Amino acid sequence: MTEIILASASPRRRQLLEQIGLEPGVVPSFADEMTEETDPERVVRELSRRKAEDVAEQILLRVPDPEAPVIVLGADTVVSAGGRILGKPGSHEEAAAMIRSLQGKTHEVLTGVTLLRISTAKERTGGAERWSAKTFAERTEVEVAPMTAEEILRYADSEEPMDKAGAYGIQGAFAAFVRGIRGDYSNVVGLPVCRVYEELKALEN
Length: 205
Fold this sequence. Notes:
The chain is an alpha/beta fold and about 200 residues long. Helix content is about 35%, strand content about 25%. It has helices spanning about 10-20, 40-60, 90-100, 120-125, 150-155, 185-190, 195-205; strands at about 5, 25, 70-80, 85, 105-120, 130-145, 180. The longest helix has 23 residues, at about 40-60. The protein starts with a strand and ends with a helix. About 35% of the residues are buried.
């Protein structure tokens, strides 16, 4: 059975995979997340691949000649609002500024995913590369209701927005302000599990 390794310490991504019956191992990536790209889709695709390759290198250092297939899953999520990429806030003040830019409007959440399959020792004997990779991006539109200044500050001053792209978590208290979405809900949480599952099945065939 193919082993799946999540190249992230994100508990949300791990829970989403477990929700669909997968039990991934976890090896956090230490890849550099700085990029000169400005297009949101290119950003998440590039960073997801960088994370997956970093973890693949870590695995091959420990097990240079794996006997069984291993798939590394790298992912990166950003919020795009008015052409501007919103990452994780560095302070509660920055979180408040991000939420002000989202309230009363529709924005996009993009997640890039790379599924990197590490070749087995037998496959490599036959001339296969160390790994092969499939990278894709999923996009979801999120409509946020108008918020009062007090609501913005109360949410921004909590701990919930501090480790999340765009300074909010749709699965938490911020759900009170999400008027609607168009696309995959799990993508907004951090991983488009339906697309991931489809692509994993394709890799097995």
